[in-house]
Amino acid sequence: MPLTILAFLFVGTVTAATLEGVITAAGTKQPIPSAVVTLDSTGQHLETNADDAGHWAFSGIPASAQYTLTVRATGFQTFTIVHLVVVEGQQLVLNRALELNPNSESVTVLEGLVPVRTDAPEIAQTIDAKQLQELPSNGRSANRFALLNPHVRNTAGLGSDGSSASRLSINGNSFRHTHYRLDGNSNYDPIYANAPQQNISVSAVQEVKVLTNQYSAEYGASSAGIVALTTKAGSDDFHGEAFAFVRPSGIQAAPPVSDRRVPNERIQVGASAGGPLIKGRSSFFVNFERIAQDRGAFIQSPVASTYIGSFNEWYALARIDHQINQNHAVSLRLNGNYGQNTNANDRVSGFTQPSAAQTSSNQAAGAQLSLRSSLGRSWNEFRANYIDSIPNSSRAVNPQVSIVRSSYSTEGGSAYTWVRMQNVQLSDVLAFQSGRHNVKLGGDYIRLKARDYSFTPFGEYRFAPGPPVPGQLPVQYTQTFGEGFLRYGQSLASIFVQDDFHALPRLTINLGVRYENQSITTDRNNIAPRLGLAFDVTGKGSTIIRAGAGMFYDQYFLYITRRFFLEGFHAPTASYTFTPGQPGFPVFPNALAAVPDSAQQSVRDVYLPGSKVLNPYNLQYSLGLQQTLGKWLLTADGIHSHTLRQMRVRDANAPAPFLRTGPGQSRSAAQADATRPDRTVRNIAMVENSGSSLYDAFDVGVIRRLSKRFQWEGHYVLSSSSTYSMFFGEPNTGVPNDWSNTGTAERGPSDFYQRHRFVTNGLLDLPFRIQLSAVGIFGSGLPVNPLTGVDNNGDTNLADRPAGLGRNSFRGPAQASVDVSLAKRVAIHESLQVEMRAEAFNIANSVNAVKVNNIYGNGVTPATSFLRPIAGVQNSDPGRQFQFSVRLLL
Which helix (H) or strand (E) segment is 370 a member of? Predict the structure, then answer.
C-alpha cells in the first residue's frame, strides 16, 4: 500500500503524470530555494532544484514504476519516500516542511540567502559556494573570502603570498590568534600561527564561515575569531569543471610606489569532478589546481630597478562519502599542497636589495576520516585527522653579511631554517533533542610533535637611517652563534556542552560551557562559560532580539616556546649585540668566526618565559536586533570585547629609564649597560601575561535578494580598538616601551585598527546568460607607529619613539578598493557549458597602503619620507589588475 504513505500529503486533481510540491522550513514556513529533489527508479535518475518560492516539479513520469523521492537542503534533515508509485494521468502535489538537522542551528531562510541563526547571539557570516565561484577574488584564496566580513582584515597587502596571504586579524587582534578549521577539525598552525596548516583550492570548498563574536561552546581555541571551511562532496549526479585563470603581464598597472610597470604574469589551472560510485550509496569528489607566477618587484632605493621572482604552488584533494545504511555514513578526505617561491612576498623590493634574496617553500599532507550516525532525534560524528606539514623552509640564495640602513637599503642575509610538524586529532560530537532542549556535547584531543632546525652563519650591521656617509660607522652589530636543532611538542584537549533551550515558544536560552587544556601552559582552569538568548518578538521570525556574554580562551602558539629554546640561557644558539668601541666589535664588513672571549659574559641577549605561562582569555558581551522587512534582512549588533592576560615582553634586566624631553637626546649603550641590575648579560626579554586589549564595535548589516538573479549584501562596522602592545612572538615585540614600565604609557590603537570599515558584494544575472558581480571594501587608514630610527636610550633596540609622541599616534591614508567581474555562459551541450570571465581588481587604481615609512627621525620635524608608502606586495595592495578565465562546466 505505497500510496497510503502519501495520503497525508496528497492535494490536487489528476491532470497529467506529474510530481510537484513546495519545500519550506518547519516552523517558519519560509520557502527553501535550491533544495535538491531527486527521483530514482531502476535505470532512471531525475534531479531538480526548488525555485525561489520553494517549488519543484517533475513531468512526463513513466507510470507503474516504483520510485524513491529524496529532498535535501543544507542545514535540514533529509526527507525520503520509498516505494512511491505514480498512476498514469495522475498529478501528485507533495508539499514538505523540512526539519532542522539536529547538528545544525535554527535558521532564517530569506529567499535563498545563506541561512542566518535566529536562536542564538552568534555573530557570523557565511560565504556560500556560489559566492566563492562567482565573486571576483584577487589570488583566489579560500581563506581570503573571510575579508567579506568587516571585522576581518588582512595584515599584509592583498598581493601577498605564502603564509602572509592568510594573516587575518579579527576584531583588531593579532593574526596569530585567528583560528582555522577544516571540515570540523582544527586547521590551525600551532607553531607559527601565521596561516592554516593545510591549504585547499577554492574550487574544492563548499562554504566559508567566519565567526567573529559569541560563537557557541562547540568552538574554542581563539579569543579573536574563527575561519571555518567545509569541503565539497560528490552526489548521485556527475558534475565537474575545468578552469584556467590567466593574468597577463603587459596590461597590469604599475605597482604602488613604483615608477614603472613590472612583469607580473599568473596562471591558475585546475579541474574538479564529483559523482556516484554506487548510486544512492557512495559518491566521490576530486580536485587539483596548480598556480605559476612570475612577478616583478620594484626596488625604490638606492637605485630604481626590478627584481623578478617565481612562484609555483599546487593543491590536490580527494573525498569519498559512503552511506553504510540508513543510520550510518562514513567519509574519507585526502589532501595535499606544496609551494615554492624565489621571492616570497617581494622580500626583495622597496629598500631590500637582490643580495638579500631567499628561496622558501611549504607543504602539507592530510587525511581525515569521519563516521556519522543518526538514530531517532540524535546524531553523532566521530572524526580522526592526521596532518604532516612543513610550514616553513627557507634559505638565503647567496649567504652573506647583512647591512641595514633604515629608509635606504637592506643588503645580504644568511638565515636557513626548516620546521616539520606532525599532529593527530580525534574529536567527537553528539547532538540530540529532548523536549525543548537541543543539546550538543563533545570534545577533541590533539597531539603535536615538531622538529626544528635553524642556522645563521653571518651577522647584521645596522647604520643610522639614510644613505651612507664617508667615514660612517655602524651603530651596532648583531650575530647569532650555533646551530639550533630542536624537538618539541604539545597536547591539547577540550570538552564542551551546549544547550539551546526553547524556554518559551518565542524565547531561546543558550547555555554552554567549554574546558580547554594545553600542556605547554600552566593553566589548568580554563573553563569558558557561554550565555545567550534570542527572543522572537512577533512569533513569526521577522523580529529577533539577541544578546550574549561569554568567555573565550586563546591557544598559546609554539613560536614563542621555539624562541625560548633557541635564545634561552641553555640554548644551542646565542645572539650577541655589539656597539662600536666595545670589545669584540668586528671590522666592517666582516662577520665574527666565534664569540669573542671578552664578550661571552657581557653582551648576550636572552629570551625567557615568565614565572607562569598562561592562556589569554577574552570576555565578550553583545546585544543585537535582526529584522526581516519583506525581502530585506537587517542586522544591528553592539559588541564589547576585553582580552586579558595577553603576552607582552618585559626586559627583566632593563637599564634605568632614560627620560627624553626633546628631540635628539640619547645615551650610549655603555652608559645604559652600566645601569642594568645584571651586567653579565644584556637584554633579558621575558614574556609575561601582562597585556590586554579592548574592542568595541557597532555592526550593521543589510542583505537583499530579489530572486536567484540578484543578491546583494553590505556590512558596516564602526569600531574602537586599543592595546598595550601587539605581541607577535619576537623578542623585541612591543618595543619601544622601555620594557621596564608597567605598560600604561604604551596603551594605544591596535596595529590593525580601522575605525570605519564597509564591505559589500553583489551578484546580478543579466539577459543572455551574462553575470555581473562586484566586491567593494572601504576603510579608514591604518595606525602608524612613529620611530626615531636610532637607539636613543641605549638598550640596543633601534626602535625608540620621538619624545612626546605615542604609539600608533599617526594614521596612514584611507583605503578603497572595488573589484568587478563580468561573465558569459554558453551552452555547448545540454549538460556542458563554457563560461568566459573577465575580472578587474582595484579598478580605480587606488594606493591602499598597509605599511608606510614610519621613521619620523630624531629631529623636531618629521623626515620628508615619513608616512610615504613603501614598495612591495606586503606593504600595499596591488594596483589595478586584470584577469581572464575560461571554465568548462559539466
Answer: strand 358-375
Give 113's DSSP letter.
P
| In the predicted structure, residue 228 carries a pLDDT above the cut 80 | yes
On the 0-12 / 13-18 / 19+ scale of CB atoms within 10 A, 583 is exposed
Q: Which helix (H) or strand (E) holds 567?
A: helix 558-567
Instruction: Report CA-CA distances (Å) from 413 to 355, 358, 396, 455.
Output: 8, 9, 6, 11
DSSP 3-state percent helix, strand, coil across the chain (nearest 5): 5, 55, 40
Give all strands (DSSP E) within 233-281, no chain letters. Answer: 239-247, 264-278
SS3 assignment, position 746 = helix
Task: Look up residue 114 and give its amino acid.
Answer: V
Q: What is the rounded distance in angstroms from the CA atom of residue 417 to the CA atom of residue 395?
A: 7
Q: Coil, strand or helix: which one is 473?
A: coil
pLDDT digits (tens, 9 = 90+) for 319-374: 999 999 888 999 999 999 999 999 998 899 999 999 999 999 999 999 999 999 98
Query: How far, in Å, CA of 366 to CA of 337, rounded?
Result: 9
Q: Is the pLDDT of residue 117 over 60?
A: yes
Closest to 668 in 3D by CA, of 465, 475, 799, 479: 475
Cα four-point dihedral sign 404, 874, 264, 162: positive
Mean pLDDT of 772-798: 92
> What is the DSSP secondary structure assignment for residue 376, as one 8-state letter?
T
Q: How confident is the model at residue 84 (pLDDT cuts 50, 70, 90)?
A: confident
Asked if 311 and 295 touch (Cβ cutoff 8 Å), the reply is yes
Q: If you search the block for the grid coordinates 592562556, which residue do you land on? A: 615
CA distance 344 to 433: 51
Q: What are phi and psi of 784, to 5 degrees?
A: -130, 125
Predicted confidence (pLDDT) per residue in 19-63, tens digit: 888 888 765 567 887 788 888 776 677 888 887 778 888 877 776
Neighbours of 317 (CB within 10 A): 24
The pLDDT of residue 604 is: 76
Burial of 450 (0-12, 13-18, 19+ CB in 10 A): buried
Round to whole Å and give the CA distance between 739 and 796. Answer: 12
Q: Distance between CA 367 and CA 424 in Å, rounded?
A: 10
Q: What is the gyration radius of the CA atoms in the chain, in angstroms?
A: 29
**pLDDT tens-place string over residues 438-485:** 899 999 999 999 999 999 999 999 999 999 999 999 999 999 999 999
In degrees and rounded to multiples of 5, residue 224 shows phi and psi of -95, -60
- Burial environment of residue 409 by CB neighbours within 10 A (0 to 12, 13 to 18, 19 or more): buried
The one-letter amino acid code at 538 reads: T
Closest CA to 699 of 722, 671, 720: 720
Determine the length of the chain.
890
User: What is the dihedral angle through the alpha carbons of 866, 870, 876, 878, rounded to the nearest 10 degrees?
Assistant: 140
Best CA proximity match to 696, nearest among 742, 647, 749: 749
The amino acid at 267? I
Helix (H) or strand (E) holding 671: helix 669-673
pLDDT at 600: 54
pLDDT digits (tens, 9 = 90+) for 269-300: 999 999 999 988 899 999 999 999 999 999 99
Pairwise CA distance, residues 816 & 758, whole Å: 10
pLDDT of residue 709: 79
Strand partners, 236: none
Task: Specify the residue for cell string 624565489.
Answer: 342
- Cβ–Cβ < 8 Å for 5, 89: no
Q: Any residues with CB less than 8 A from the CB of 466 and at least 6 apart, and which?
A: 405, 406, 407, 408
What are the Cα distances from residue 519, in Å, to 189, 447, 493? 16, 10, 9
Instruction: Read off the DSSP letter of residue 847.
Output: -
Say which amino acid occupies 862: P
